């Protein structure tokens, strides 16, 4: 029997490694940006086409590479960062394994231009599927330009599992945000399909966060500063009143590297305990600086998960630091937000108060028939005219009383014979359910889901027929949103206008809303738009849900009456009528049950 174990060919081994390192275009973006930062670049440009499926290009002004280094960079486990195993615990750079470029070159068409400052000519390389097809000297500027085209061209199974362009672009944007926030000393540009999304100048941490998330973010940030022997913490947390239901704005950086750490996340959320509304999530941008030998970043292929030596102490320090920052913010709010007109001057605090005096004229007689009388000097004079022709006040009283008696008799007779309005036996329970009695038992309706179902069918009809009704705002509503969220709303603008949303985009990522759907309250606009943006980023099956369906369902969920809101008798009756006039009244657009029917028989069984 022949041997069955054999070495893998290099191109197969590279494709397997690529499966670990390169999961999607965003993985390529992360590796190339980090390489540019390791090269000491001060200006980096990221260019994307078709959400990275067609092109990912990174241009930097770093130190560049020699011809030999450029060729070696695409070999597996070729790195300038490690000479022995101990170097793994004293890392000062992003990449160190030497797998990234080799993995990318195995599954894409890669071209590289690079030049060092001391060299006269640079190097140009073309690689397809790990094979170098061209290498030659080239005239270029200092730095490196690397282009990755046709990702997964030779692995169609992997390419098939990529998400839609919107989802992949969102993942690329997230990676760009993470790198940009950790390195404000580097200027970065980001363009997608010839449209510039970000142009971030060199700045500090706060300015970088504001430039990415929008100008309004500046007023929402509370600084966090703490330094101990174990860790140095800096950064910002969001004010509790600006907390969102989404979990997007939560960033941890350890030694300028983005990480995900559930344990530290719990430390931050526990510091916000009692300050947030139900289901809201805190916003934070925290930068942790720890000794290199106290953290292991080599436990996960993407290096987003790390292991600390003393996690319990770190947990306590992070929690205490955030809690202290929020406490300082609360004190400042109390000190500086007071209305000055309600402040009592200090010199008045020791003065004696005197009660007001009331003077009464004991000689005043309101029933006196005299023409006038006078009192002491402090009491005003009073005069009462004599009654004249008082008999005229009672003239015609007999006729009026007769008319009133006849009117009462007619109204009484009419009310006895006219049909009285029949009212339903319907009421609200716990401000969440609508209870309606039936002959066979009772109907329990979830008011939020019922209203959601009604709105869903109405909105879907408006989008399909393109006949939405809008209520114009007297004062336009302006929202400052991140660039990527403004882009999503712009893509959905035509369909949103069909539902009643009328808006336009202004400079500095400001969206001005001038019209709203009739059913939508102005105070719920930010929450509804946040839900629309979040759902549009999800990659739902196109065969099952059209974009119109998703938009109608999202808006209905955001506009529906909340659980906990009180409803009048008339409103409950109208909602029940509209619900049972729907094509599908039993389920919401997400398939959740709207009502249940409790029969009298099932109630009788409860008492057996």
Spell out the blueprint of helices and strands.
Blueprint (H helix, E strand, L loop, with lengths): L9 H12 L3 H14 L4 E7 L5 E6 L6 H6 L27 H7 L2 E7 L6 E7 L2 E8 L4 E7 L6 H5 L4 H18 L4 E6 L2 E6 L4 H9 L7 E7 L4 E7 L11 E5 L2 E3 L2 H10 L12 E6 L5 E2 L10 E2 L2 H26 L35 E2 L8 E2 L13 H21 L8 E4 L3 E5 L3 E6 H19 L4 E11 L2 H9 L1 H7 L2 E5 L3 E8 L7 H12 L10 H13 L9 H11 L15 E5 H7 L2
Parallel strand pairs: 1-7, 11-13
Antiparallel strand pairs: 1-2, 2-6, 3-4, 3-6, 4-5, 7-8, 9-10, 10-13, 11-12, 14-15, 16-17, 18-19, 19-20, 20-24, 21-23, 22-23
Helix pairs in contact: 1-4, 2-6, 6-7, 8-9, 11-13, 11-15, 11-16, 14-15
CATH fold field value of the largest domain: Heat Shock Protein 90
- Note the beta-strand portion: 15-25%
Q: Low-confidence stretches at least 5 residues in length (pLDDT < 50)?
A: 333-337, 371-379, 409-422
CATH architecture of the largest domain: 2-Layer Sandwich
Number of strands: 24
**SS summary, helix count:** 17
Average of the residue pLDDT scores: 80
Shape, per Cα inertia axes: globular
């Amino acid at each position: 029997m022949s041997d069955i174990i054999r070495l893998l060919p290099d191109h197969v081994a590279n494709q397997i490694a690529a499966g670990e390192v390169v999961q999607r275009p965003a993985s390529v973006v992360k590796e190339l940006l980090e390489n540019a930062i390791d090269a000491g670049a001060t200006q980096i440009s990221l260019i994307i086409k078709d959400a990275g499926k067609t092109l990912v290009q990174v241009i930097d002004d770093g130190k560049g590479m020699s011809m030999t280094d450029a060729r070696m960079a695409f070999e597996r486990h070729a790195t300038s960062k490690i000479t022995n195993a101990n170097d793994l615990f004293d890392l000062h750079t992003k990449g160190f394994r030497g797998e990234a470029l080799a993995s990318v070159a195995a599954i894409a068409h890669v071209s590289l231009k690079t030049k060092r400052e001391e060299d006269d000519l640079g190097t140009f390389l073309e690689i397809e599927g790990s094979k170098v097809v061209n290498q030659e000297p080239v005239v270029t500027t200092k730095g490196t330009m690397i282009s990755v085209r046709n990702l997964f061209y030779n692995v169609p199974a992997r390419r098939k599992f990529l998400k839609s362009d919107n989802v992949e672009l969102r993942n690329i944007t997230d990676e760009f945000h993470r790198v940009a926030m950790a390195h404000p000393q580097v200027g970065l540009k980001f363009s997608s399909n010839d449209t510039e999304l970000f142009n971030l100048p060199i700045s500090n941490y706060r300015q970088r966060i504001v430039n990415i998330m929008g100008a309004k973010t500046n007023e929402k940030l509370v600084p966090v500063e703490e330094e101990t022997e174990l860790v140095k913490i800096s950064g910002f947390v969001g004010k509790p009143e600006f907390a969102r239901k989404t979990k997007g704005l939560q960033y941890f950086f350890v030694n300028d590297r983005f990480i995900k750490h559930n344990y530290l996340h719990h430390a931050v959320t526990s510091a916000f305990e009692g300050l947030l509304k139900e289901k809201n999530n805190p916003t934070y941008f925290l930068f942790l600086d720890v000794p290199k030998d106290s953290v292991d970043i080599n436990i996960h292929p993407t290096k987003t998960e790390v292991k600390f030596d003393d996690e319990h102490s770190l947990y306590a320090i992070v929690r205490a630091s955030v809690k202290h920052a929020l406490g300082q913010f609360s004190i400042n709010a109390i000190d500086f937000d007071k209305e000055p007109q309600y402040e009592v001057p200090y010199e008045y605090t020791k003065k004696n108060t005197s009660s007001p005096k009331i003077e009464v004229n004991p000689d005043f007689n309101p029933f006196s028939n005299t023409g006038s009388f006078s009192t002491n000097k402090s009491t005003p004079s009073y005069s009462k005219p004599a009654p004249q022709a008082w008999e005229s006040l009672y003239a015609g009283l007999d006729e009026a009383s007769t008319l009133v008696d006849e009117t009462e008799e007619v109204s009484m007779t009419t009310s006895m014979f006219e049909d009285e309005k029949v009212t339903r036996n319907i009421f609200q329970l716990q401000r969440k359910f609508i209870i309606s009695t039936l002959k066979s038992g009772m109907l329990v309706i979830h008011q939020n889901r019922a209203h959601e179902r009604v709105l869903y069918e109405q909105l879907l009809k408006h989008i399909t027929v393109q006949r939405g009704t809008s209520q114009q705002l007297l004062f336009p509503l302006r929202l400052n949103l991140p660039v990527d969220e403004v882009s999503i709303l712009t893509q959905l603008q035509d369909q949103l206008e069909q539902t009643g949303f009328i808006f336009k985009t202004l400079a500095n990522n400001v969206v001005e809303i001038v019209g709203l759907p009739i059913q939508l309250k102005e105070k719920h606009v930010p929450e509804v738009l946040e839900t629309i943006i979040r759902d549009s980023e999800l990659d739902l099956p196109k065969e099952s849900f059209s974009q119109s369906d998703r938009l109608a369902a999202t808006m209905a969920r955001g506009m529906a009456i909340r659980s906990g809101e009180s409803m009048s008798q008339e409103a409950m009756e109208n909602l029940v009528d509209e619900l049972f006039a729907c094509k599908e009244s039993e389920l919401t657009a997400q398939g959740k049950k709207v009502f249940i029917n409790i029969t009298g028989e099932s109630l009788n069984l409860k008492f057996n």
